[in-house]
Amino acid sequence: MSKDLLRSSQVITTFGPGAMVDLPDWSVIIGGLDHWDENKRRKIIEHRLLPRLPDPSRGLATPPLHDENPYSNERPGLEVFVFPTWFLTAEGQPSPGHAGRHRRRLVRFGEIDARKRTFEGKPVVPVRFVAACEAGHVEDVDWKLFVHRGAKDCDHPLWLEESGASGDVKETWVCCGCGDERPLYDALGAHAKVLGPCRGRRPWLGPDASEPCDLHKRLLVRTASNAYFPVLISVLSIPQAAPSDLQRLVETHWDDLHQVTSPADLANLLRFNSAVRNTFAGYDETDLLRAIQEMRDQPPSLRPDEFAILKGHVSAPLELADPTALLATEPLDRGQWDPDYRFPQIEKVVLVHRLREVLAQIGFTRFEPVTSNPEGELDLGVRSQKLSNAPWPYPAIELYGEGIFLAFDEKRLRGWMANKTVRERSERLEAGFQQWRKRVPTGHHAFPGVAYVALHTLSHLLLAEIALDCGYPLAALRERIYALPDRDAFGVLVYTASSGSGGTLGGLVEAGKRIGDYLERALERARLCSSDPICAEHDPSLEGVGNPLSGAACHGCVLVPESSCENRNDFLDRALLVETLADKGVALFQDFGGGSARRR
Q: CA–CA separation, 236 vs 238, rounded Å?
């Protein structure tokens, strides 16, 4: 296997267009879709996802697929560009003017021996720092402009000087041979404007690609976790009537048809657009107008449909055994998982023997991620960058797996939400959210509600408990939270999915048959945290608190790997589930006795 090979799922979730990647020999930026080999991409069909794309007419396709033939010399067409183009000599030397500092030479790509990756015989490494803006643009830092605090005609060599071995920005200086120097810390922070106005550079689309931008550049560590956030849309494939040929054509040409709202609009379009007229020549205009309206009247959100089918769909025995089925479910009788009626809050448990998830990338951001609300709709207040110049298909992958679905009793949950102490706790959580919004005005749509926080926390506890003996590592498990009071939909789907056979090993379905034991163990573990009483007493509503988006939640109790969480470990509070050291009378599982679960 090539040392520079990426998995398809990585191209969608981690190393998509515009992402900066450290390869063994170079630091590069992944090229946009214009630089992908379209001949090696495979089309993906998912009719529920198409209407949610910014441009449905582009469709979906996999990243370029690797040829597994060991005798083939062909490589997938995923072009990359060297970035950044500033380098540091790997070996440092004492600073002549500052005791305790070591310095390394800053050089451009054109000054190095690219074949040997050396400068004057010394190995070089890419510089850690680049300049970027909140709109996703990125470029090299203009080090000469920075160190001289403006334009200056100076040809002296540049150096990066550091004290200590931590690499902390506070211990880093940019120095020029002319005697000028400046601490790199001057460029740190969201409001620092010393790097100058953004020039709208988009090197993933080509070396000279740019667009107008009204923001200022910020210092960014290219390997930092906030350097790249893919904007993803995910849906579960659910059984539905197959679309007609007319519906498929409407989806394909939606970019031309989406503004049609009346027979007059349609008549004008067919009159002046020959491509559309020829495509729909064999169809009645009334049927075409109806198909356009049906496309426009798609359900406003993704999650309600999924909840309804997961709760109500019952697969036939033949469907359970069919490896091609998109969804295969089996509801459990209560006597199978809760014979003692310990968890009346949960109405139904469904084993999901087989599921298909389609994950598509429609853009990316830097510094702040695009989040989604409880109904699965993206918050587009954050400015995201496009993946290509031309309208190529959006990159997507198909994931197959299994899971456990828990549907909650809607009446019991609403009764709990109406409790005075729960409302007070909800107000504190929402106050913390509003504080966070002042700091990050482009963040979440709105506070997702106390029901979401409770179900989200329970999901994390179950993920951690089930991972102990289901055969999957915790990082391979994922969640979908259904907390939709307006739709009377409250549920949790714990599942695993992968592009290969790893998501269909059966361990999660087997664990679902013992879900009562896992629930008891998870709730018992939530009572105490190794960081108590600090964790239990955390109040998100206090001014300046470290984590205003969660209540009693930390790495010692409910946080999981970010790959498992749908909301980046935000909106968690174990006090909503069980009594903690600091809160009483708030817990959803108020009558849970605990303490009797057997450790496996």
A: 6
Rounded to 10 degrees, what is the CA torsion of 406, 411, 413, 418? 170
Q: How far apart are CA 12 and CA 497, in angstroms?
A: 14
Vertex 135: Cα angle to 132 and 141 (nearest 5): 15
Q: Under a CB-based contact definition with an 8 Å cutoff, are residues 518 and 511 in contact?
A: yes
258 and 173 together in one domain: no
List the alpha helices (DSSP H) in 366-449.
Answer: 410-417, 420-439
What is the per-residue DSSP string for 341-390?
---TTEEEEEEEEEEEEEEEEEEEESSS---B-TTS-B-TTS--B-S-SS
My answer on whether 121 and 173 are in the same domain is yes
What contacts 24+ positions apart, CB below 8 Å, involve 470-476?
A: 470/507, 470/508, 470/510, 470/511, 471/505, 471/507, 472/496, 472/505, 472/507, 472/508, 474/560, 474/561, 474/564, 475/561, 475/563, 475/564, 476/502, 476/503, 476/564
What is the rounded CA–CA span in Å between residue 132 and residue 20?
12
Q: Where would I find the beta strands (DSSP E) of 409-512?
A: 477-484, 489-498
pLDDT digits over 325-339, tens only? Answer: 788 899 999 999 999
The C-alpha R_g of the chain, in whole angstroms, comes to: 27
Residue 531 lies in a domain: no
Q: Is residue 551 part of a domain?
A: no
Nearest to 581 by CA among 533, 534, 524: 533
Range of the domain at 246: 240-296
Same domain? 92 vs 216: yes
Q: CA torsion sign, 347 to 352 to 355 to 360?
A: positive
Q: Are 360 and 516 in contact (CB under 8 A)?
A: no
Same domain, 141 and 263: no
Q: Which two tokens stand for residue 34?
A: 């214009």
Residues 6 or more apart from 503 whose CB is under 8 A from it?
399, 400, 401, 402, 476, 496, 497
pLDDT in tens, 489-504: 999 999 998 876 555 6
Cβ neighbours for 421, distance < 8 A, ≥ 6 positions apart: 585, 586
Instruction: Copy the structure tokens of residue 363.
Output: 């853009």
**The dihedral sign for the CA sequence 64, 68, 69, 71:** positive
Q: The tokens of 14 are what? A: 């981690």
Q: What is the pLDDT of residues 376-410, one digit of tens each?
A: 666 655 678 999 999 999 999 999 999 999 999 99
Based on the fold, state whether residues 213 and 101 are members of the same structural domain. yes
Q: How far apart, in Å, do the first and last CA atoms of the chain sit?
A: 39
Burial class (CB in 10 A: 0-12, 13-18, 19+), 441: exposed
Tens of pLDDT along 250-262? 877 777 887 788 8
Q: Is 438 inside any structural domain?
A: no
Tell me if 210 is assigned to some domain: yes
d(CA 506, CA 361): 28
